[in-house]
Amino acid sequence: MYRRIFKYLRPHYRKFWAALAFMVVFGATDGVVPFLVKYILDGVFTQRDEKLLWILPILLVGFSVVRAIADFGQQFLMASVGHKVTEDIRNDVNRHVLSLSPDFFVKNSTAEILSRVTSDVLLIRTLLTDSSAAIIRDSIRVVVLLCSCTYLDPMLSALAVVFFPLAGFPIARIGKRMRKLSKRGQDAIGSLAALFQESMQGHRVVKIFSREQFEQERFERGNHELTKTFIRSERVRALAGPINEVLASLAVSGVLLYGGYTVISGARTAGGFMAFLVSVFLMYEPFKKLTRVNATVQQGLAGAQRIFEILDTPPTIQEPLNPTPLPLGHAIEFHNVSYEYPTRSEGETKVEALKNISLLIPESKKVALVGFSGAGKSTLVDLIPRFIDPTQGSISLGGVDIRTVGLAGLRSRVAMVGQHTFLFNDTVYNNIAYGNPAASRAEVLGAAQAAFATDFIERLPLGFETIVGEGGMSLSGGERQRLAIARAILKNAPILILDEATASLDNRAEREVQMAIEALVSGRTTVVIAHRLSTVRDADTIVVMSGGRIVEQGTHDHLLSLNGEYSRLHALQFRDVEAVAELAV
């Protein structure tokens, strides 16, 4: 894990080594302090050397300037490296998340992923910069001061450092406990963020069912568990300092007792002893920091573990190593395709969504998929742009297996408009232009006009420059659908998938969107999932699905004559329409 973390320093090694050089200078200057004390006490106060009295202030000022420059250099450079490393890690995580398959986002909440990209990455930055800087800088200070102590008095040095090995045992135990608690705490942050996100996104549902109190209690329970975990972490972290304080006091007491007697007996000078004491006190300060930084290191490792869990998640949809060139044709054919939804845990029964599907969708033809909910229609169309791959069988485009062509190339041939339209929190213009970033303004406006969206766009406060809000919630359902259709028109892909694009609209909005769809369908290989059978009567082929299988296919009139599943669907919808008409009367 350390190797994986520190590889992020490689692109910034020059700044890192410069910061390290400043740390060495800063740490090494600590070793000068005891000798300055010794010369001041023995030279000025004992021997009354007036010349030395004038030299020492100049040395002290120069010494302070060197330390100040070194301190600034190491702090600024390490902070700069830290921010660059944070940028690189976030870019890597975002790049990898974008490469992951849709099933990853089903199993992991957006808030959980976001907490890793924000708080966990900051923990890694702290590990790489603050903690690493503290370890390097304070280790140098300890080594330099230990050398000074040994030079001044080897016997007292041995007595002073006797507690160092003893301090290692509690530090090691505390470190293991800290990593576990840190991992648990970061997981709890992600869970709490997911709860908060759900209550915000579902605020209308919360209010209509008057569940504010329930959501508040649920959040408070999660928040309480998070707080308990953090308090445990702080308790464990707080133990390191007091333990080492007690051990250090024993060593300092021994030094004072033994050293004091030797000064009284005349075996060493007061200046020499005071210089040694200064070395010891200066040495214990960075040593205590080293013992405390271990907790921060463990937190950083816990954050790194969570980040690497994402980076180590392989995409279930794999890019072919040697992609086949895209075919010229756009006929789609399913060959004995079956699909089972992956299970979330061992022992869970797999759900077979599709069973031995064989289907030809001819080029430039319109094929409709109909059936009751759960028949497998949406699963079938998700196979075409490879949002998922079949567990058995294959799918070909223009006679070429789609698993052998590049993902970007395959998806460039497909436009999709779903029932639940997603718009970015951006302008109307940019949401349409998302379908083809290279399009000119005239082409964007033309796509909007073809989607029958120009009229409502011009009524917006800023027209095409109006911000649509998160998810496009400032617009009506029909308006969002028409922007999605305009986006698909601008993409100008030869294959079009319409997944119940008018199912949630009222009659007027449906008529407007249907006119936009007719403009979009023209000349394209089209697959339509339809809830209202009236919208697909003109389809070249209607495919009836039930229980993950194709049970019937043909034209509208042919399927009605079979008096089978399609006829039953048609009768149910016709009866519903009659019932509505009677109520209206």
Element order, helices and strands?
Answer: HHHHHHHHHHHEEEHEEHEHHHHEHEEEHH
Query: Which whole number gives the mean pLDDT?
Result: 79
Strand order of the largest sheet: 6-7-8-3-9-10
Helix proportion range = 55-70%
Tell me, briefly, the overall form.
elongated
| CATH overall fold name of the domain at 2-311 | ABC transporter transmembrane region fold
Give the percentage of residues in beta strands: 5-15%
**Radius of gyration from the CA trace?**
36 Å
- The number of helical runs is 20
> Which class of the domain at 2-311 in CATH terms?
Mainly Alpha
Pairing-aware structural class of the strands and helices? Answer: alpha/beta
Largest sheet: 6 strands, mixed
CATH architecture annotation name of the domain at 2-311:
Up-down Bundle
Cα separation of the termini: 73 Å
Task: Count all strands and give the number.
Answer: 10
Uncertain residue segments: 576-585
CATH superfamily of the domain at 2-311: ABC transporter type 1, transmembrane domain
